Automatic annotation (TrEMBL):
<protein>
    <recommendedName>
        <fullName>Oxidoreductase</fullName>
    </recommendedName>
</protein>
<keyword id="KW-0812">Transmembrane</keyword>
<keyword id="KW-1133">Transmembrane helix</keyword>
<keyword id="KW-0472">Membrane</keyword>
<feature type="transmembrane region" description="Helical">
    <location>
        <begin position="498"/>
        <end position="520"/>
    </location>
</feature>
Length: 527
């Protein structure tokens, strides 16, 4: 009988070491093969303590078991469950179909793990030391679990298909030669992608990835100080529910909560040192920046260009440098706080559409106007008009007028000197028509002043015997009120300076009356 036939019958191959023979039997039995020494320092897969040959198995034997292993013992299900084992050489399962369940805990891989285009049911690598995981186009029917693992030269999951959940909680991933820590471009995850309290050193790339439920980076720390602009690069990301860039609860031992921690819980905030790119992303419920700490350098951005999401929760710490870009984004609810937005020149909102403002804490109108001004160092009417529309739709018509007045004042600063002076005059007198009460006051003051003045004017009648009695107040009012004829102006003749005064009064009357009429129209529309 050949060796292959013997293996299929369950016999041990001749060249196995003692450790490999034990692993072979545990595989057939479906039991955990545990080679730990019982000393936490020695057994730490990420520590420097060497593991002897008694804890080593060859990667070739592991691949043999998974791809063409012996049958299970009667009444058992064959599976590979390793704990405290060192796997020597490259584990190459590329293109293979692996039917047994795989669970490897607290193990060391001497060299990289190759899984491109391999097919699994469920794979769990927990708390393992792995030089590199190369798994482009890998396919799992169930979960891919990689929690607490350390990858010293990156993880590649390009175009991978994960049937249910992808777990990277508390993993530590260092960059590869291209500067990327985890590359998941085009990846599809059937349910949740949980990377809570992840440490990423390099660019975390999820371009065009799709997540069936939520993507959680709660408590994670992303850092890319190596010259690249981004720590999180995820344009065209699709998440059916929520992207969490929020705190995670910290216990003893460390654990993640699966939701935003309750008040009073010790937490670790999401922290990102480097740019974030979520351009053209689609999110079914929300993008949540609760308490996020964003550390940007000059030229770096938190870019949300053309993002579409029902709720944007911009509730993190104000970035001191860099920019926040919302150009073309579409949001239903904008939940924010005054202390989260950056200052002038650090915010861009061209074409940013939102329907409702839901401020967290005090956010007075003056601060909201500073928010808009920060986004428009060069005059742009659109952010002002959007804010005014949202306020008006919410019944805050007075605040909406204040926003439009601020728009005119900002516009004035970019006009030629003559137009600027005329703008100041409009502002001082009638507030560009957005404060009609002021125009009415000016009309009353002007009427009183001109009434007193015309009382001293020389006013011979145009036709003797065909004129009403002279009334300086009615004459002044007749000049001020356009269209309306009070029966005074057409009967008296003024000369010299009085004629020029009447012309000025007529001009001011038209300006003020038009302003009052416009204000009254807005009041009636509101009613």
């Amino acid at each position: 009988m050949t060796q292959g036939a013997g293996v299929r019958a369950g016999e041990l191959p001749d060249d196995l070491t003692a450790a490999e023979a034990g692993m072979w039997q545990a595989f057939r039995n479906g039991s955990v093969y545990d080679l730990r020494a019982g000393d936490t320092t020695v057994d730490d897969p990420h520590g420097g303590h060497p593991w002897g040959s008694e804890r080593c198995v060859r990667a070739r034997i592991v691949a043999w078991l998974l791809l063409d292993g012996p049958p299970a013992l009667d009444g058992r299900v064959a599976s590979l469950k390793l704990t405290g084992v060192q796997i020597v050489d490259v584990l190459d399962l590329a293109g293979g179909t692996i039917e047994p369940y795989v669970e490897i805990k607290g193990c060391r891989f001497e060299k990289e793990v190759l899984l491109p285009e391999a097919r699994f049911t469920t794979v769990r690598l927990v708390d393992c030391a792995v030089p590199r995981l190369e798994a482009a186009r890998v396919h799992t029917e169930g979960d891919l679990h990689l929690p607490r693992c350390r990858f010293h030269n990156g993880v590649r999951l390009t175009d991978a298909h994960i049937g249910t959940d992808l777990l990277l909680n508390q993993a530590i991933v260092y960059r590869d030669r291209r500067g990327r820590s985890l590359t998941g471009d085009g990846m599809t995850v059937g349910q949740d992608l949980q990377a809570e309290m992840l440490e990423s050193h390099g660019e975390l790339s999820l371009r065009g990835a799709k997540v069936g439920v939520s993507l959680s980076l709660r408590g994670s720390r992303l850092a890319n100080p190596y010259g690249s602009r981004r720590a999180l690069n995820a344009p065209q990301l699709t998440v059916e529910r929520t992207l969490y860039l929020t705190p995670a609860s910290v216990g003893d031992p460390l654990h993640t909560s699966g939701r935003t921690p309750a008040r009073g819980t010790r937490v670790q905030r999401f922290e990102c040192e480097g740019g974030i790119r979520l351009d053209d992303g689609r999110f079914g419920d929300a993008v949540d920046f609760e308490q996020a700490r964003l550390i940007l350098r000059d030229g770096q951005e938190v870019s949300l260009r053309r993002v579409q999401v029902p709720e944007l929760r911009f509730l993190g710490e104000r970035p001191q440098r860099g920019r926040v870009v919302l150009n073309g984004a579409k949001v239903v609810n904008l939940m924010d706080q005054a202390t989260s937005w950056p200052g002038a020149g650090q915010l861009q909102m061209g074409g940013f559409q939102y329907e409702y403002l839901v401020p967290r804490g005090p956010f007075p109108l003056a601060r909201r106007l500073e928010w808009v001004a920060a986004a428009t160092p060069e005059y742009n009417p659109e952010p002002y008009e959007r804010l005014a529309t949202v306020l008006r739709n919410g019944g805050e018509d007075e605040d909406a007028r204040e926003v439009l007045l601020a728009k005119q004042r900002h516009r004035r600063e970019n006009l030629p000197i003559a137009a600027k002076l005329w703008g100041y005059a409009q502002d001082w007198t009638v507030a560009y028509g957005y404060r009609p009460g002021r125009a009415a006051v000016w009309m009353a003051v002007l009427w009183a002043a001109t009434s007193i003045a015309f009382a001293h004017a020389d006013h011979p009648p145009l036709k003797s015997g065909e004129h009403p009695p002279w009334n300086a107040s009615l004459f002044a009012l007749d000049l001020l009120l356009p269209v309306i004829d009070l029966g005074q102006v057409g009967y008296w003749q003024l000369r010299g300076g009085w004629q020029w005064l009447s012309a000025v009064v007529i001009l001011l009357g038209w300006v003020l009356a038009t302003t009052v009429a416009a204000g009254a129209t807005r009041m009636l529309r509101r009613g």
